[in-house]
Amino acid sequence: MDAAIELVDVVKRFGPKTAVDRLSLRIPRGSCYGLIGPNGAGKTTTFSLMCGFLAPTSGRISVLGVSPSASGALKGRVGVLPQDALLPPWERVGRLLTDWAALSYLHAPEQEARTALQRVGLAEAWDVKCNALSHGMTRRVAIAQAIMGAPPVILLDEPTGGLDPRVAAEARTLIRSLKGEHTLVISSHNLQELEELCDAAAILDRGVLVRAGTMSELTGQGEEFTLQLVPTAPIPEDALRAVPGCAAVSRAPDGKVQVRLQGGPGASPPEQVITACLRAVIDAGGQVSEVHRGRKLEQRVLELT
Amino acid sequence: MFSFAKDAALLGTVEARRTLRSARVVVLLVLFVMFSGLVAALTSLAVQGVSRAVDEQIAQARPDASASERAELKAQFEQQAREGRSEFLKLWFSDDAALLEAVKEVPVALLVLFKLSLVFLPLYVALLGFDSVSTELGSRSVRYLAIRTPRAAILVGKFLGLSVVLLALVSGTQGLAVAWAALSDKDFHAASAFVSWARFSVSSFTYALAWLALTTLCSSLFRVSMVGLVVNGMAMFGLWLADAVGSGISRAEPGGALGLLAPLRYLSPTHYAGDLLHPALSRFGLSALACAAFAAAFLSLGAASLRTRDI
Questions:
Q1: Which of A7, A183, A203, A217 could bond A213 through an S-S bridge, CB–CB 3.0 to 4.6 Å?
Q2: Across the interface, do B7 and A103 touch by the CB < 8 Å criterion?
Q3: Pairing relationship of beta strands A183-187 and A3-14 according to DSSP bridges
Q4: Of A193, A202, A203, A86, which Cα lies nearest the Cα of A145?
């Protein structure tokens, strides 16, 4: 698939500190891509490099075929939600968004600004000064400016950071609605959110790429699944082992049953194996309270970083 | 190129709106009025003192003189006063005969005020715009702009916006000063006052543009506005010193051991301020061009710095 964003051997140093070390990434057009890692992993630096806010010490970055550092290269083509950029406190929200829309050469700046503000549920904040907005409202205004004009690439750094659960859920719904039409890059600490939203992700640690791939690959969805059985019922481990497509069955310390799937060509599809395993448990008189395919992204990240 | 100009114009409008809404403009206006008032009061006192001294000298010289003799004496003293004014202006304002002729109808107090305002103008400009870019860098709000427009357009836009405010401030303050002079001096007619206002405004504004570009440059170098202001102050002092040293040497001993330092004066906008009031278009044009060149150089440096730095 054609790449919307490509980083090749990118290094970014701040004095003696190497924040990003020989990072190569390819983000396909139309995908929703996550940047994952602990604090200091280089997520925000990578994000800022993609936006052209930082210049790489070495290596090559291309966003929609152009270098983001090139003068005015991303005008109207990329929407960005920076993590720590403040809104100008003296401006009114509507005026500010209209000016920014005009600066992006959007066709009807005021209309674009009103629509974007409406999409983040802040239509009533049009005449409010930026310094009178709460943290959550500020974040939503910042999201609004990023999606104005429906740019082909949207980069979001911690889009739900500091939002209350209801507003965060609304923001996730908004991001979900953008999927498919735009290339989305999301940098976040919220791994559950990324697992839910992203098609693929890169896991960074201390500036180095640890693993990159589709969400299915990262969480091992085609490799294993976990069954949570009701403890009072018997656990038919032998029956599970006999199911075609099962490579191994083991008990986790928390009592869950982990089933590893056979891989390679000719292997049974995971859905078929899971169904057969469930049937085996039920036939043996067991009761299933939960099925989870692959590992939790959080667990995977903790293993890798 | 067109899109760059369009972006800079839009950003300039935003910057002008922001600055005009801020209390800073009012503070600067009040500062100028206070400064003008002080200068006006001091020069008025001096002029009144001279006038009183003339009357006393006439009274003491010929206590029994007839009215016609007194008038003659007064005319003599007034002639001396005019010569004194001319000497004072030669020493303090300019020794250029054409320039002095061009401002012969302008009250001394107004010329003193204009001259002093040029001295303090760089500081005035620095206070107006020291945080124009650094605030955006410090809060990182510049990122919202940089994704939409070339960074150089941000710098030029800020400069343009502040230029508009500066033009309003300069013409307004000069207007106040000229109006005061016209009201307090019956020989300073409305037509002369209007011409003086226009010339003072154009000269001050042209001169201020070079300093505004320096202020914008200093502001674009730092995230902390106060650091930018301090560096701006140091640069101002350095440029003033270059002119003072260069001019001093060129007057005192151009062929001496320090003669090599004389051309230093050409490296400072201060050197070109004097001719901005000159009636000869070529002299004015050359000085205006020099100020514009300084502005272009400072802005180019700022744009280069902003383009290459991390924001």
A1: A217
A2: yes
A3: unpaired
A4: A86
